[in-house]
Design a protein that fits this description.
The radius of gyration is 25 Å and the shape is globular. Helix 2 packs across helix 3. Helix content is about 20%, strand content about 30%.
């Protein structure tokens, strides 16, 4: 029953983990064995009332019942620049037009929440104390930013001092969660913009929910007794002045930070037609910087244009084919990190198939 929010497939997994046969589970929930088996086999839709009864009777979470097949998703998703333009909205701060926001590609299975943002306030000086500036309070998501045009980036440093980074096309930065910041334009016509790739990494809603159920002071005691290496919460990376293009393809590493060691932020420049594959276990966000781009995803060839964006799920076979292509790529590690891959390796190929759709009792009666 792929059109239901709660899954009978997950119900089987839950009672197996709790070492309950259907007859045991039906007694726990105070329903007949016949009716429970109808839930288990998908003949009766698992609804909110059933889930409420189950999470009261058993040590399980509501999310344990969620059907992973409820939303049909594809291996990749394209978002055209023309569609992005339709989402344009002006954000005011201090009563004046401050930013123009536009959506870029987003997917419910992706960690990214990226936006195209044009700065609408012109500044004549580079002082971080400009009266025109309106600072935010920071946000939960990590942010990688690519700059196009004359844009200033303002932030609070580790000493809580206001700083200005004078950015130009190709420059990039990383900013950690909850660091106050803002942007403004050095172009009187305010043509500059940023590609702000906000994303969740290890600190996601699961962690938020976990923290809310635990003792705050004890969490802090455990976390902050560690003597981790200090690192800056903001990284600025200037674009290289000279790029050697002896090869058919040049990969430029953009801003990175020790807070997110597995994340990769890259600019890809293609000088000759090639067949380079970006096939890995990462979620990938792509932004087309060149006038045109020709890509191959799985067995499908895509012709994209400037400002088109693309999301690829982990294990998507992505190839950048055409010369004169320039693409921005952000790669965020999926749940399939090295530790997970290693455990799946030991579980074995045959059992991974069982893991995906296991709807049998753990023993034969």
């Amino acid at each position: 029953m792929n059109n239901t929010i709660f899954s009978s497939l997950r119900l089987r997994q839950i009672i197996n983990d709790l070492k309950r046969r259907p007859i045991d589970a039906s007694k726990d929930l105070k329903i007949s064995l016949k009716k429970f088996n109808q839930y288990l086999n998908g003949r009766i839709k698992i609804d909110e009332k059933f889930v409420e009864k189950a999470v009261t009777a058993w040590p399980v979470k509501i999310s344990d019942f969620i059907n992973p097949y409820f939303h049909k998703t594809n291996q990749f998703k394209i978002y055209k620049a023309t569609d992005s333009l339709k989402t344009s909205r002006i954000m005011k701060r201090g009563g004046i037009n401050y930013y123009e926001y536009r959506d870029t590609v987003m997917d419910r299975d992706a960690p990214f929440r990226p936006e195209w943002i044009r700065e609408l306030v012109y500044v004549e000086t580079n002082s971080p104390y400009e009266k025109k500036l309106h600072w935010n309070n920071g946000h939960l998501m990590h942010q990688l930013t690519y700059f196009v045009g004359k844009v200033n980036f303002y932030y609070l440093d580790e000493n809580n001092q206001k700083k200005t980074a004078i950015m130009n096309t190709g420059d990039s930065m990383y900013i950690a969660p909850y660091v106050p910041h803002t942007f403004a334009s050095r172009d009187k016509n305010c043509k500059g913009f940023i590609i702000a790739i906000t994303f969740s990494d290890r600190i996601n809603t699961d962690i938020q929910n976990e923290i809310s159920k635990l003792n705050y002071s004890k969490i802090c005691e455990i976390i902050f007794k560690n003597k981790f290496e200090n690192t800056k919460k903001v990284t600025i990376k200037k674009y290289p002045k000279k790029i050697k293009n002896n090869n058919s393809l040049k990969i430029i590493t953009l801003a990175k930070n020790k807070i997110i060691p597995s994340v990769k932020f890259l600019e890809i420049n293609v000088y000759k037609n090639n067949n380079k594959s970006f096939y890995n276990n990462y979620h990938q966000y792509l932004y087309v910087l060149s006038k045109k781009a020709k890509l191959k995803l799985e067995n499908q060839t895509l012709n994209l244009k400037e400002n088109d964006t693309l999301y690829c799920k982990p294990f998507t076979n992505l190839k950048v084919l055409k010369k004169k292509t320039k693409i921005l790529i952000a790669q965020v590690e999926s749940n399939f990190n090295l530790k997970t891959i290693k455990q799946l390796y030991y579980i074995g190929n045959k059992n991974i198939k069982r893991l995906i759709k296991d709807n049998t009792q753990w023993f034969k009666e």
